[in-house]
Amino acid sequence: MHILLVRFSSMGDVVLQTATVNWLRSLLGKKARFTFLTSSEFTSLLNGHPEIDHVIGFDRKKGEKWSDLVKKIDLLDENDPIDLILDLHATLRSFRLKLSFWNIPALTVDKRRWERFFLTKIRSSALKKLFSHKIFGLEPQTERIIKDFQGLFGDLRGKRRAVEFRKGPHEELTSLPALKEKLDHGNNIILAPSASFEPKRWPVDRFVLLAENILQKTPFNVIVLAGPEDHFCEAFNQINHPRFKNLQGKTSLKESMEYLAQAKICIGNDSGMNHIAEAYGVPCLTLFGPTDPLFGFAPHGSSSRFISKDLNCKPCSTTGKKACHRDRLYCMEEISVDEVFSIFVKMMEVK
Ligand code: SF4
Prior knowledge:
This protein is of the alpha/beta class. The chain has helices spanning 11-16, 18-28, 43-46, 66-79, 92-100, 113-121, 125-136, 141-152, 158-167, 204-217, 253-261, 272-279, 330-333, 337-350; strands at residues 2-6, 33-39, 54-58, 84-87, 106-108, 188-192, 221-224, 244-246, 265-269, 284-288, 305-308. Helix 2 (18-28) packs parallel to helix 8 (141-152), helix 8 (141-152) runs antiparallel to helix 9 and helix 10 (204-217) crosses helix 14 (337-350).
């Protein structure tokens, strides 16, 4: 069986969907072939993944045409006929792809969009807690994947198998390719202050204070990882310490993965960096602002933790994109540096 999995973006979601690949491999065995279609900027996340046979990139940002993508899939289908398109994105783009290949059976994952949207409309945090998992089926995303796929693929071994999968060698569920070069990053604490949308960012001055605390009170190095657009990270330039590095805009995605793979802990917002860290089995401490762990994207590793404030206005949007409608960003500002630092210290003790 040859399955084409489709998830164009974003970085964190692409990483999370490796749980789907791992699960399908365990379900369908070595003979199944998996091709993963994603945006070209994320192919380095998946190239060399032990369970993915082929990765296809689509470079829309650099002007690659839709017809070029269709040609690539056509060629793939010619060489190894595709039995199923698994749409893990459920957007207009993935719909268009399924339309272009209407003769190939397709399944689309339920992203619980309406349920998440409805959750943003409830203004009582007690009600949200009461309703979320049971009524909306908003379990942690990686568990949801397993539950959905059991249904879709008629895995009659049912829930027991899902539990075994979670407790087995795949305990982390998500995974990324092993890195060839082992660099010595084992004493690093990674700070990941970026996020796709501004309201999802814990204020950068707090990240700076946190970095200073870690440098003063612990023996660890502190490394900042962020993308070339994240100019707000210049705030870290005030730190002048031999164990500190601000690598904002200085690493490729692959290099960032190398740092994350060997870090002690990654502390960051609800963003892709934390998902990458977890996919390498590195514990993370995730700070949630306008989004909510109830959406199912909380860290899943047993040593990972998250902080999310209990506010009636939260979650205020399904993605964190919407501008804050209050006078201040309470969801983030109520997370203090002391709180993050003390949870970090506890995580290090357990580790
Ligand atoms: S403070 Fe409330 S309204 Fe403002 S971004 Fe946070 S969750 Fe949304």
